[in-house]
Every structure is written in structure tokens, then in C-alpha cells.
Write a structure and sequence with these properties.
By secondary structure, the protein is α/β, with parallel strands linked by helices. Helix content is 41%, strand content 13%. It has eleven helices and eight strands. The protein has an eight-stranded parallel β-barrel, surrounded by seven helices. Helix 2 crosses helix 4, helix 4 runs parallel beside helix 5 and helix 5 packs across helix 6.
């Protein structure tokens, strides 16, 4: 009788240990059961159920339209496909900015209705009260600084953030505030590599980068971008590991051709 090896679940403590050992943390997005199962099986440490689902799953121009109910649907699907990874869920725009009570209600809904392990929200000093309130209910919180896509209309552009000294100092200040409030990790998006490395060296919690250089504690990418499913998005920080758009459209075109030519199904594919 073969004894199946027990899979050890990644926890917030695991990530802390990885940082202390100097081992980099891998993080990818997923939004559905089938993809989550593959990402999990490949050994990714953290799966982010990102509000980027608004873009890659629903076709919206920004992350703003996706609702809390939709995020819960995606997160519950991902949880059913994972055995090992820590699953973090984005609180969507409008579900936590109003006040800390609303933020807590949203976080509790995510945890109760999906089985996820943590939530992520964007912002620094302005969301610290919400972070503390969510943590007081026992829900782990990941922060997000730098380019915060939910604030895209305030920025007006997706360019690199914190290049000027004033904004850089605020980012460092906010990172310390989030750590003191109790966040277990922070995502830094599109900030200068030197600044990101400085934050990672100053803080004892893991710093996960996207377009933030190699001096941080881990990296995150959007799954559909790194697999080459989404062809329109070509930022400097993205490394494409596959060209699935070409491969999938090619396979489907072959299927259409085989159906039209009566090649499919053949005798061995019929009953």
C-alpha cells in the first residue's frame, strides 16, 4: 500500500521563514479552479485571486468594476483547486475605502464564503485603521503600495511610482505603518528597484515585487500575462514564459478545419 506524502500548506509564517532564510517567494494570480490546480501543483507559494480578474476574466479596462460578490466567486473556485499555496484575495474597489467597519464586513465575507487564507488591500496611511480592524478579527492582511491600480483615475497613468523623493519617502513611511499595523507582507508595484530594495531591507515582513526589481523578497505576475494568453499587455517587467495565445488559437483553428473537412470525428473516435 502506497502512503501518500502529506502536502504542507504554506502559511503566513512560512513566508516569514522564507524571508529570514533568504529564499525568494513565488506568487502568481489565478481566478478559476482549473488554472489554480495547475499553479498549485507547480509549487507556487502564494496564489493571489487578484482584482485583475476584472481585466483578464471580464474584459474591463480597469480593476474598478469588479464586485465583492464576483471576487468571492473567483476565490471560492481557486480554493477548490489548491492544496498547498497560501491563497490571498483582493478586496475590490469600493468594498473597504468607505470606513473600517465596511472593510471588516467585506473581509469577513471573503473568509467565510471562500475558505481563503488572507486578504489584500491597496493603500498606506489612509487604510491603516481598516487593516487594524480586519486583523483584530483574526484575518491576515497583505498590503499593496506603489502603483495601486484601484486609484488609476487619480494617477491618470500606469507609469512607475515614487520616482520623486517626496513620494518615495511617503512610500517608505506607509510601508512601516502597514508593518506596525500587522500586515504579514506587502506588494510593491512599479517602483524603482533601489527604493524597493531599501524597503525590503528595512522591514522584517516579506516584500513582494511586480516591476520592482530583484532586491525584494519575492515576485508576483498575472498568470495570463506570463503565459502569453493576454497579448496586449507588454510592460518592461513582464517575462513571458509561453505564447499560449498563439498555441490555443492554432489548436482551435485546427479543430474547426477538422470538423469542416469531416476529419473529426474519425471511426476510432466514434461509438
Amino acid at each position: 500500500m502506497s502512503v501518500q506524502k502529506e502536502i504542507k500548506r504554506v502559511t503566513t509564517r512560512t513566508l516569514q521563514d522564507l524571508k529570514q532564510r533568504g529564499e525568494k517567494i513565488s506568487m502568481l494570480t489565478a481566478y478559476d479552479f482549473s488554472m489554480a490546480r495547475m499553479v498549485d501543483a507547480a509549487g507556487v507559494d502564494v496564489i493571489l485571486v487578484g482584482d485583475s480578474a476584472s481585466n483578464v476574466m471580464a474584459g474591463h479596462e480597469t480593476t474598478l468594476p469588479i464586485t465583492l460578490d464576483q471576487m468571492i466567486y473567483h476565490a471560492a473556485s481557486v480554493i477548490r483547486g489548491t492544496n498547498r499555496a497560501l491563497v490571498v484575495v483582493d478586496l475590490p474597489f469600493g468594498s473597504y475605502q468607505g470606513n473600517s467597519k465596511e472593510a471588516l464586513t467585506s473581509a469577513i465575507r471573503v473568509m467565510k464564503e471562500t475558505g481563503a487564507h488572507a486578504i489584500k488591500l491597496e493603500g498606506g496611511e489612509e487604510v491603516v485603521e481598516s487593516v487594524k480592524r480586519i486583523l483584530s478579527a483574526g484575518v491576515p492582511v497583505m498590503g499593496h503600495l506603489g502603483l495601486t491600480p484601484q486609484s488609476i483615475y487619480k494617477f491618470g497613468t500606469y507609469v512607475v511610482r515614487a520616482k520623486e523623493e517626496e513620494e518615495a519617502l511617503k512610500l517608505i513611511h506607509d510601508a512601516h505603518l502597514l508593518q506596525e499595523a500587522g500586515c504579514f507582507a506587502i506588494v510593491l508595484e512599479k517602483v524603482p528597484a533601489a527604493l524597493a530594495a531599501k524597503v525590503a531591507s528595512q522591514l522584517h515582513i516579506p516584500i513582494i515585487g511586480i516591476g520592482a526589481g530583484s532586491g525584494v523578497d519575492g515576485q508576483v505576475l498575472v498568470l495570463h500575462d506570463m503565459l502569453g494568453i493576454n497579448t496586449e499587455f507588454k510592460p518592461r517587467f513582464l517575462r513571458k514564459y509561453l505564447n499560449l495565445h498563439e498555441q490555443i488559437t492554432g489548436a482551435i483553428a485546427n479543430y474547426v478545419k477538422d470538423v469542416k473537412s469531416r476529419d473529426f470525428p474519425n471511426d476510432s473516435e466514434s461509438y
